[in-house]
Design brief:
The structure is a single chain. Helices cover 31% and strands 17% of the residues. The protein contains eight helices and nine strands. The two termini are 16 Å apart.
Length: 257
């Protein structure tokens, strides 16, 4: 593993956003391979459920951006989704790149020793179910394959959905959790305590030095998204931020300091 920091954040410091940031089609195995080519052994990606309850990698609940046409993840089977082209939107060289299942990505990342920040991203109305299924699938996989790994090599769950994180907490309490906030609410500490979270994740644009110091003083890891400028990255790290994800893996390397 690379860039292990303090005990509140025993994970890599610099994480490739959605696999490879802006260099490959997001949330695909091509993105994971691209990140690896740039030396990244840490990725963040999004997981939601197909209509038949299979966790797959996708950010948007509705088609139209990374998947052509109309439709939605929650009304499509895993077989349908995994046959869809998730690469052409990005560039012709990625035509035919499929939507991967969480299982496929877990296998790839374990084989390549890539640490994962698994963002549970439920489609509206499927918050608790998504949290449970993603946590169960990940827990089962690591029970079978993760015995030789340290806990710092196990993945971390994050989500904006508190019900999804609560379900993950009940299903796989041994897998660490980070709570995602677009804007950090006044009652952030109580939320983290309730979920027995390891870390707070937030938009770097709303973070202040004072708030960063409060979060760190309370004993939590602090992770930011999505940091694409080296100057800002240095400022955040100077504030005590433990890690961040970036789209610019070509400019902010895995060994950035």
């Amino acid at each position: 593993m690379h860039q292990l920091t303090n005990s509140h954040w025993p994970y890599p410091r610099i994480v490739a956003h959605r696999g490879a940031g802006k260099l490959a089609p997001e949330n695909t195995l091509a993105a994971m391979r691209c990140g690896l080519e740039y030396g990244f052994h840490a990725v963040e990606f999004d997981v939601m459920l197909s209509a038949d309850g299979v966790p797959i990698l996708m950010h948007d609940p509705e088609f139209g951006r990374t998947i052509a046409g109309s439709g939605s993840v929650a009304t499509s089977s895993a077989a349908q989704l995994m046959a869809m082209d998730a690469g052409s939107w990005f560039g012709p060289q990625f035509q035919g790149e499929c939507v991967p299942s969480l299982q496929q990505v877990l296998e790839f990342c374990l084989q390549q020793r890539i640490w994962m920040n698994i963002e549970i991203k439920p489609a509206p109305g499927f918050e608790e179910l998504t949290g449970h299924v993603v946590a169960q699938a990940t827990r089962t996989f690591y029970a079978e394959h993760g015995a030789s790994l340290s806990r710092a090599e196990w993945p971390l769950f994050s989500s904006f959905s508190l019900p999804a994180l609560k379900a993950a907490q009940h299903t796989a309490p041994e897998i660490a959790r980070g709570v995602l906030f677009e804007r950090v609410p006044a009652n952030w500490l109580g939320i983290l305590q309730d979920l027995q979270a390891l870390a707070l994740h937030t938009n770097h644009q709303v973070l202040t030095k004072e708030l960063a110091q409060q979060i760190k003083a309370a004993g939590y890891g602090l992770f930011c998204y999505t940091v694409n400028q080296a100057e800002r990255a240095r400022e955040l790290l100077a504030w005590g931020v433990d890690g961040f994800c970036t789209d610019r893996i070509d400019q902010i390397g895995h060994d950035f300091a």
